[in-house]
């Protein structure tokens, strides 16, 4: 039965149609927020997938170009693989919802969000987050929801909820907060060095608004919700658990996991696994396939107990202690800038590349305001970084997500295009991984940008906090700088990047049903303390400020401004003028519609020469100027000198020399470079030049 529900949300109407479309999905919500339309569906398989030890959730965010009245580019003229924005949005939808499905649920679940119409005033990403939560909540799929999400911007210190596209352009904050009924379950933020107390205020203002949305969703579920279906549990049998824990006492498991060397711990667990396989091979062969999951559960219980009750971390550190840190620059001699950051067994080597602005990344998506970006951060995670072997298949969703997080953390400190007219790419290569490589990427990128001579405002560092909780809200412990094992068996990965001035990025992943305010405040405080330590004690001693100029292997770029009406003169018919300048000087020239001209090359002298030629083209010649040009034509009455493309002047034979000249070729020939004085520009616009009137000291100098 078709039903429609509406509420006012941040000044715009949110409408949810149930039963109107996609009736064969387990749950479907046809979402309208303003003129933005997203179809959110939730489907689940009838039976669990065999042979897996995880919940197989898949989230999709499909951008259709018809939603903004465009035909896709490319040969096929249809949408291809998911854009970076689609991948990042799918991850944001996934993170708050995944913890609310049963942990022993093994049925395949797909959450699909089809963007069908986009209103710039109403975010399709937010609409999809709400739509997915509603679709699952009204379906028969087991889910301990609902969740709600709010976007928060900040303009002149004032918080804006679910900002419009125009507001996002001038906002100092791009915060997404997802909540359950009682707690915050996901935080994602990019910020212009926002202070910690302001960030906390924004998070809980969004959390309060989320409660209004959850009440709205509850009314939909009450009228349209299906009973949740039963499922086949994949819990470890109690008999196996009891026998395993008697065969491997708790002190033996503690000894196996209590080491700061990942490889040693993995080897210890392999030995225990082999012992159990031998123990059950004959009498309980049905238990053998379950040993891996049983050992995982035993490790998790052991690590959590050690941390929460004994305050012992697997590598022996104190609760707030950071692993050994190291920073270096100039590792790679020929790249434009490089930096390496090491934290324990996590190590990132970052390379920075500078290029003309024409090499900005072009974006073809639903956001019409952003068609390109000049800063690109890419993150790679090869299998050798964790001691494994598998072929490289290009960046996956994790790599794209980690790269975007580090990119977001660094954008607020980058110089403007006017200050530094370069496209910038940093690439983080994971050399070794054991927890929070994304935040090590932030540190390594900051180092390599400064080493490359990019005048960033301040250095940026990142760190991650973990969490282990007990049976009550006030029974918890927050860990500074979690390693892989603590992330794997813990409840939270709370990543915060920023400068001495404030936060630039946050990403919070959790595995439980939300966080209380005291936990969030403690995590933000601990990451601030750790961030300051990294900046002051580790990064600043290596490189405390950006180098004052780009390296010798980096391109040099000079920028000038010309009258936009003169752009055609510089380009010339079919590009002949600009191509000739490029051929003559070896530079690269980019011209924007507003008259900004960027000249890029490795030879400063050639850059200056190209700029001189451009200035001659666009600026009128004035009487009295001393200019250097090339003789291009000789007549019996004088020589024509090219002062700039399509701008010639005449040296009359009487002006060639102080002495009498019988023949023009006695003084100059075609191809000669000569320094001349502009005598006059007559009323017909003709330029008359003199060679003999150039002061002797100026005769050999190039024109200014």
Automatic annotation (TrEMBL):
Mg(2+) binds at residues 487, 493. Keywords: Cytoplasm, Magnesium, Metal-binding, Nucleotidyltransferase, RNA-binding, Transferase. Its cofactor is Mg(2+). Pfam families: KH_1, PNPase, RNase_PH, RNase_PH_C, S1. Its EC number is 2.7.7.8. GO terms for cellular component: cytosol. The keyword Acyltransferase does not apply. One of its GO terms (molecular function) is polyribonucleotide nucleotidyltransferase activity. It is an enzyme of class 2 (transferase). GO terms for biological process: mRNA catabolic process; RNA processing. SMART domains: KH, S1. It catalyses: RNA(n+1) + phosphate = RNA(n) + a ribonucleoside 5'-diphosphate. Its main location: cytoplasm. It is found in: Cytoplasm. The keyword rRNA processing does not apply. InterPro entries: ExoRNase_PH_dom1, ExoRNase_PH_dom2, ExoRNase_PH_dom2_sf, KH_dom, KH_dom_type_1, KH_dom_type_1_sf, NA-bd_OB-fold, PNPase. Residues 624-692 form the S1 motif domain. It comes from the Bacteria. PANTHER family: POLYRIBONUCLEOTIDE NUCLEOTIDYLTRANSFERASE (PTHR11252), POLYRIBONUCLEOTIDE NUCLEOTIDYLTRANSFERASE 1, MITOCHONDRIAL (PTHR11252:SF0). Belongs to the polyribonucleotide nucleotidyltransferase family. Involved in mRNA degradation. Catalyzes the phosphorolysis of single-stranded polyribonucleotides processively in the 3'- to 5'-direction. This is Polyribonucleotide nucleotidyltransferase. It comes from Qiania dongpingensis. The gene is pnp.
